[in-house]
Structures are given as structure tokens and as C-alpha cells.
Amino acid sequence: MSRMSPFWRSYAPIVGTRQCRRLDANAPTRNKLACACIERHCRAFAALSTLPSVLKSIEGGGRSFSEQFLETLGESSADGVYAVDDQQRIVFWSRAAEVLTGRSAADVAGKYCYEVMLGGDHDGSAFCRRNCPTVAGARRGRAVPSYDISSPTADGRQAWFNVSIVALAGSRRRDLRVVHMFRDVTARRRAETFAEKTMELVQSMDEEEGSPPLRRRDAEATLNLTPRELEVLRLVGQGLSTNEIAARLNLSRATVRNHADRLRQKLGAHSRIEALVRAGQLGIA
User: Fold this and answer.
1) pTM of the prediction?
2) What is the rounded distance in angstroms from the CA atom of residue 80 to the CA atom of residue 73?
3) Reported CATH class of domain 77-184
4) In whole angstroms, how far apart are CA 260 and each of 198, 202, 223, 245, 246?
5) Which helix (H) or strand (E) holds 164?
6) Residue 151 pLDDT
7) Could you report the per-residue pLDDT of 171-211, keeping only the tens digit for each?
């Protein structure tokens, strides 16, 4: 008997060896692509337990894969989830999306996403628009990196959302569904803005008082900062989170936190922002 591919073998304990063997031998390409999408994203949203029912829908009968996938994702994720068709009309809006934006599914259904989200970038320019880079990339089958947008909520509050994209392609272009998963990062963005303004203020005060910061090399030597600690410090100054720094430097999250703790101790700071301010005074960051 032929061996299963590694992809389907990994699902055998969950779905069953016999079903996985049959899918591996007979499933058309579109089903394998659909399941690959599940493999990448269901773990992140604690939805792996629903995989058997999703596979059953894919095999035939019942709702389409897109409908099943969106329902599963919307129910299992704390992030807001919405999907648009190839014309950027909203076709799905999860309960979490309602909570984050203050807009109900009934209010947004069928509307253009860019008219609902009104997303802007850090310069205040419109990011959400007709044929935006996100949808254009999804139409071409390209991976879309996550990004931040500033978006007004229904109660008038200006929130920052970090958005991740999953494109569900169909046999026809009109079957395309571009899934947006977003979470509130307003607190992080405000902290970054505060740190930037504080560092600018400290540097301007140093210039006015005629007491320039210590030379960078002298400061680094005095504090005994390691090259890795300096790397972490500069990435923190760029606004990267612990997870992002870990990915950038190919380190574990625990290792990044240890470096950050040692940095705060050496700089005499009690928080990341205070560490950045102190580093700015010393001419390090």
C-alpha cells in the first residue's frame, strides 16, 4: 500500500488514517490548497478540533469551503475577522469584528471595505481604498505581510489595528475571498509615539543646554552592553514587539525577554519606554 504524503500523515491522528489516505490519493489540487490554508492558520486560532467537519465540507456536499472556513475562524478567534469579494464588498463580518469596531454585520454587509474601515497609515494618508495593495496582491496570489492601519470606530474613537491577510482563491476570479484578521494595537502605537516624542524632547534639551550626550562608544563600554543587547535595544526603538524581535534575530521569546530585562537593569530603567529615553540621553538609541 502506498505511503501517505507528510501533509496528510500529520492529520491522520485527528481525521483518521483511512480518510487521510483517501484524500491523499484522490483529492483535487484545490482541496489540498484549501487544507494547506487550514494547516497554516487553524492552529493560531485554536480551530484544529473543527478540522474533520471542514474536510467533510470540502469533500463534497454542504456549504462551500470559504463559508465553512470563515464560520470556523470567526467563531474560534478573538481577533476580528471579515472577508471581501473580488470587488472589495464585505461578505463576512465576525462577532469579534463587531466588538472591535462597534459596527454590526447587518450595517456593513455588502458595503465596500474601504468605506467601512477608512484605514489610514502612520502619515495619515489613506491606506484603505479601491484596489488597495492588499487586495491587488491577493488577486495575484501573492503573500501579503501584516500591516497597521488607523481606523475610526463607530463611537468616534481612533483605533490602530494590526491586520493579517488570507486569500481564499476559487476556480473563478469572482469566487475570490480576501480574509482580514485584525486585532487592536492602539496601546502599542501610543507607547511608540510617546517614546519617539520623549526621545526627541530629551535630545533637544541636551542641545539647548550645550551638554551633548556621551559618545556612543564610551556609553556602550561604560554600561557593558553586549552586541546582542544593542541589537535588541535598537529593535525595541523601532517599535518591534517581543515576538517580532525573536523572529528577526532567530531567538526564543524567553531569550529576548532576558536581554530586555538586562538592558533595563544596566540602564537603570523600569520599563521599555524609560530604557529608550535613557538610551537616547546617552546617544545609544
Assistant:
1) 0.54
2) 10
3) alpha beta
4) 20, 22, 14, 11, 12
5) strand 158-168
6) 94
7) 677 788 999 999 999 988 887 777 777 666 656 655 554 44
Of the ranges 41-50, 75-84, 95-104, 253-262, the best mean pLDDT one: 95-104
Other Cβ atoms closer than 10 A to 203: 15
CATH number of 188-281: 1.10.10.10
Secondary structure (3-state) at 18: helix
Buried b (16+ CB within 10 A) or exposed e, 135-164: bebbeeeeebeebbbbbeeeeeeebbbbbb
Helices (H) and strands (E) in the chain, counts: 16, 5
- Give the integer Cα–Cα distance in Å for 201 and 279: 13
Which segments within 34-142 are labelled E, that is strand?
80-84, 90-93
Res 143: pLDDT: 82
From the centroid of its chain, how far is CA 162? Answer: 5
Residue 94 gets which letter from DSSP?
-
The residue among 101, 156, 163, 102 whose CA lies nearest residue 137 is 163
DSSP of 134-149:
HHHHHHTT-----EEE
Domain boundaries, the chain: 1-75, 77-184, 188-281
CA–CA distances in Å: residue 189 to residues 1, 114, 149:
56, 22, 10
Which residue in the block uniquely carries the three cell numbers 469579494?
A: 85
Pick from 188, 128, 177: nearest CA to 152: 128
Q: How far apart, in whole angstroms, are the C-alpha atoms of residue 176 and residue 267?
A: 51
Q: How many residues does the chain have?
A: 285
Name the strand (E) or helix (H) holding 150: strand 147-152
